[in-house]
Structures are given as C-alpha cells and as structure tokens.
TrEMBL record:
Protein name in UniProt: Large extracellular alpha-helical protein
Listed InterPro entries: DUF5719
Pfam families in UniProt: DUF5719
Origin species: Microbacterium foliorum
Length: 460
C-alpha cells in the first residue's frame, strides 16, 4: 500500500513537471512567434501595358481677323479685316480641311479645321500656323498664331480694357454638338459670363463686355458639351492712329515653372516702362514667384527678383531694367502661376506689340510651321543639366541640322518663312518662334505633337 502510494506520487509529480515544461515551452514559442517575421502570401495583380489606338489629329485655326466699329451707324458690328495666310504640312501629306463658319461676321468669314487621318497605329504629325499683316486706317501690325487642338479648359492671360484697346475673345467649336462656354474674369473686378458656341462655328465677343473696369484681366475659359479653341485678338490705337495687333493663344493651365523664350526688348527714346511688362497671377492661393531673366545664348542671369502674389489677383511689373536685346525668362513658384510678357517695339503710331506666353516642354518628334513674316527665328531653351542636341529639318524629308543647346542656356536659329520644319529632341527643351521688323512683331510657343498616345497600365 505504501509502495503504491509512493508510485502514484512520483507519477503525479512527473506529470506536473512535464506540464510545466510544456506550458513554458508554449509561452516561449508564443513570445518568439509574436516578434518573429511571419510568412506572407502576396498576389501580384495581373497587369499589362497598353497603348490606346490614336485618333485623328485635329487642329483648329484662328480664321479671319476681325474689325469692330467700321460702320459708324453700328459700332458693335464685326467685319472681316483680313484672311490670314496658312502654312501647313503633315507627316502623311497635307491634312484635310473644312470651314467653321463665323456667323457673327457681317460680311462672312470662317476658320479652318485641319484633320490628319490616323494611319494604322500612328497619328500623323501636323504643323500649321497662320499670319496676317495689316496696314489699315484702324488696324496695323503683324499677327500670328499656331493652329491648335480645342480644349475643355484654358486661360487668356494678356487681356486689357484700357482706353484705345479693342480685345476680342474668339471661340471656335470644331465639334458636332454645341458648346456651353463659361468665361470667368480675374482682376480688380471679378465677373463671369456664359456663351453658347454652335457646332462647327466660331463666335467672338469684346472683352469689355465682361471685364469692364478690371485692371489686368485674366480670363478662364471652361467648355462643356464640346471642347473649344480660345484665342485673344488684341488691337491698340493711340489717339487716332493704329499701333499694333496681336493674336494670343490660350494657356492650358497654371505652371510651377513656366518658361518664356523669345522676349524682345526694344530701344525707346522716351520712357521704357511699357516696352516690356510681366503679368503674373496665382490662382486660388497666395504664392511667391522667383523670376530669372537671361540673354538668349547665355546661361548668366541678368536680372532676378521675387514677386509676392495674392490669390486670384493679377499683377504687372515693368521690365525696364533690361537693356535692348533678346531674352528668355524662367519662373519658379511654390504654387502654379499664370504668366505672360507684353513687348512692344515703340511708343508711337505704326508700331506693334506681342504677348509672349509660356512654352511647354518638348521631347520627341514634332512638326513646326513658320508662316509669312519678317526675320523668323527659332529660340530653344534647355533647362537640363546636360547639353541637348536638337535635329531641325525642313519637312518632309529635308536634311537635318544638329543644333546644340548648352545645359542651362538657350540658342537662336534662323528659319525660313512659309516653311514647315520637323524637330526631334531626346532631351526636354522649350521653344518659341519670333518675328520682328519695323512695325511688325509676333511670337508664339511651339507645342508638343497633337494626338500622341501614352501607354497606360491596365488591371483586368
């Protein structure tokens, strides 16, 4: 009996000891498991890189220049002052064209819609620009603008309602349905208006009809129903003498680092304060914009200053400190800004003026059209840390010329009027075309190819 009890005690002790060991092992295992890296199961989603089929390349030209008030009995009537000359070429031949009627012109007129038909999976490159030179009793000077795709949203930066000016907002709808266009005016006076642009047509309205009393008005153009092409036609009269015309292309959006190539500063016998003027605005938020100006062909900054900007309030500054010459301007801001430079070649009658707007970044192949006009030059700006080699050739099939744009600098290249060029650059650059002669001044940015399709990632 005593032996059995001793055996039972020993067995029970063994079981307790074993349980304690097992329990301790479990505790250690749990503690280790919590701190250890657990195995994971990862399922990579199926994906594929797909390049959408490109559509036809569609460009919209500006059409007839307009004159207002030539009939004293009807001072608001618009008539055609000139039909511009078009220079156009495409990589697959001359594009198809069709008229977009300007129904509000008393004597008729039209803009052109240019269509480059897609070939397989390749959208054709198109280069098209219009220009017109006038020497009339009420309008004189040179105006030029590229043909561009329509857009849903854009900005017109260089408007004015000052005495002696006549600015017209020209809206062209190449689509097959009407477009409802909202115009929002930013300036010392805020205003808005809505315009219906019928399908396949063009309308225009005076800037004074929506921006009267506003200093330095900037107009936001928003289209619904169909995208539109927006252009600002400007003219200036001093006393009774015409003093310039301009066609200003719309800016797609505000930018953090806009680049403005092709600024010309001219000598003037009197006050130089108005020979070159910078206009800036920061939409929605306050910003500080740092402005740097360099001569074309040099990386040296000749002028640098900071401009504090109040949200939604345009401001202007004179560039009178600059000596006569050719310049490029770069702007850096903590928030996207809108920018433009107004330049003029004199302060008397028979002079001309032009607005310089930001040039977008170019990379890859494009077509560029140089229309009729005096002394055309291509200005290339390279903001990268390495030199850029840009191939420039007359299109189609011309022998290319290699143009080296040093890092952080710019160059100017003479080009021929009424010629279309192909430009190829593997390094990002910015570019504008300028034309200048006595009483004739025009400048416009070069845009990336329309209709190019980027690859997208598809997750089935």
């Amino acid at each position: 009996m005593t032996g059995n009890r001793a055996f039972r005690v020993a067995a029970t002790g063994a079981r307790v000891l074993t349980g304690a060991v097992v329990a301790g092992a479990c505790v250690v295992g749990v503690a280790f498991g919590v701190t250890a890296t657990w195995p994971t199961v990862v399922h990579e989603p199926a994906q594929a890189q797909v390049t959408p089929l490109p559509g036809d390349t569609v460009l919209v030209c500006n059409g007839d220049l307009r004159a207002v008030g030539r009939d004293p009995s009807n001072p608001l009537e618009m008539v055609s002052a000139a039909t511009p000359e078009l220079t156009v070429e495409g990589s697959s031949g001359r594009p198809e064209s069709s008229p977009l009627l300007a129904r509000d012109l008393a004597d008729g007129g039209a803009a052109l819609r240019l269509v480059g038909i897609v070939d397989g999976r390749q959208a054709p490159l198109l280069g098209a620009t219009e220009s017109a030179s006038l020497a009339e009793a009420d309008l004189s000077g040179l105006a030029a603008a590229p043909c561009r795709p329509p857009s849903i949203e854009s900005w017109l930066v260089g408007g004015t309602v000052a005495t002696g000016t006549e600015d017209l907002i020209v809206l062209t709808n190449p689509g097959v349905v009407p477009s409802t266009v909202s115009l929002g005016v930013y300036g010392s006076v805020r205003a808005s208006s809505t315009v219906i642009v019928p399908a396949e047509s063009q309308v225009a309205l005076p800037l004074t009809s929506i921006a009267a009393g506003s200093d330095f008005p900037i107009v936001k153009v928003t289209a619904t129903g169909a995208p539109v092409r927006a252009v600002l036609q400007s003219s200036l009269t001093r006393t009774l003498d015409p003093a310039g015309i301009d066609l200003q292309d719309a800016v797609p959006a505000a930018q953090r680092q806009p680049v403005l190539p092709g600024i010309e500063v001219f000598e003037n016998q009197g006050d130089n304060a108005d020979m070159a003027v910078l206009r800036l605005m920061s939409p929605e938020v306050d910003s500080d914009a740092v402005v740097r100006v360099s001569e074309v062909g040099s990386s040296t900054v000749v002028d640098e200053f900071t401009v504090p900007l109040t949200a939604d309030l345009p401001t202007e500054l004179s560039l009178s400190a600059l000596s006569p010459g050719s310049y490029t301007m770069s702007i850096e801001s903590d928030n996207p800004v809108l920018a433009g430079v107004r330049q003029q070649d004199g302060a008397g009658p028979q002079d001309d003026f032009a607005w310089v707007t930001p040039a977008p970044e170019l990379e890859d192949d494009i077509y560029m059209a140089v229309p009729s006009g005096p002394n055309p030059r291509l200005v290339l700006v390279n903001r990268e840390d390495a030199d850029a080699v840009v191939q420039v050739a007359s299109a189609p099939g011309g022998e290319p010329t290699a143009v080296t744009v040093p890092a952080g600098s710019s160059v100017s290249v003479d080009v021929k009027p009424r010629t279309v060029y192909s430009i190829s650059t593997p390094t990002p650059v910015h570019a504008s075309v300028t034309m200048a002669a006595a009483g004739e001044l025009a400048v416009w940015p070069i845009w990336p190819a329309a209709g190019a399709q980027q690859s997208i990632t598809v997750y089935p």
